[in-house]
Amino acid sequence: MNNNKIICSIIIVSIFVSLISLPINTKAKTIKEFEREVEKYTKELEEKKNQVETNEEEILKIKKRISTIENQIDEAELEITKLQTEIDESILEIEQKSAESKKILEYYQISNGDNIYLEYAFGATSITDMIYRLSVIEQLTDYNDKIMKELESLIEKNKEQQVKLTEKQADLEKMKNDLIEEKLRIDADSAAIKDGMPGIEEQIKAAKAQVEYYKDLGCGENEDIQACQYRIEQENNTSTSFPSTNGFYRPIEHGYITQWYTGCKYFDTRINSCTGHIGIDIGSSDKSIDVYPIAPGYVTATYYDNAGALVVKIKHKYNGRYIYSTYAHQRTFAVRVGQYVSPYTTIGKMGSTGNSSGPHVHLEITSCDWKSEGGGCFWRTYAEFSTMNPANYVSFPSRWSNR
Known about the structure:
This protein is of the alpha+beta class and 403 residues long.
């Protein structure tokens, strides 16, 4: 008798340990609470939508500024070309005038200094010749001085143009740097908008549809939404068509883990997404291997997300609650919404659709779902609070060759 009691106690403890070892968010939520949550997050999303529109207007302004800067760059480059041409012409003129001055001085043989001028003047044979020679000397001296002043002026102008050229080059460089910064800002803004997965309109539509689903189902205002679904199933005798999950299978026949679950470390409202990894990524040597459900259930959604990833969602019954599994980045669909699937039903092929660096299966297990009818949560709640580590439910060795 005592042995039987001990055995029963061990069995009860084992069952209890197995239940707590597989954590699941069992916090009850009434339709009223869910509706308030939907209203709250819908309002936040509407505000975000307005911010996105404002951001897009700002992007248009930035693009106009970029266009203006590009025009200024073009004008600056033309001016630089013009300055360089003037410098080249000035240098050529200096060389020409220097050669001309040298020829004149050589012609009159007065290039050796002032003494030659005196010898030339005192070599006159008469007063008239003296006056003539002094006049020639004066003219030559004035002409030479004029040429040298012109040369000095051209040299100075050349230096000023070189300074202007350097300044223009510096201005041009600054314009280019400003342009790069503006483009980086646009890229960052665009990425933030694009990475807001799923889309705002899609989230609002899905959330409102879920509220209507529970109302149409006949759930009481203060009734737990999952308990309501169970109640409706019992009343309609449909619960037997939804078998409970007794165990979990790996989603592919052979493979390995490429990225483990970290959970939502921080929900970034700017991009409307989590930092962290809310699922497990599974790879295989067979890049188009069949993908299977981790447990029996019903397909609740098949769609492409905003990044183009092909997604399948399945609803399971586990420990008296509903849980959901999500399979992303598939290459093909092989199921439809509402279809019953067993762990041996092919739901698609592993692929690399959407934001993916290579073929793999992204598996999520959650206590609610934002996309499925009756999933019972909003996108933010789904991503931030409902995800669970798939490794707590499915056994994942370093590598495997069976399910």
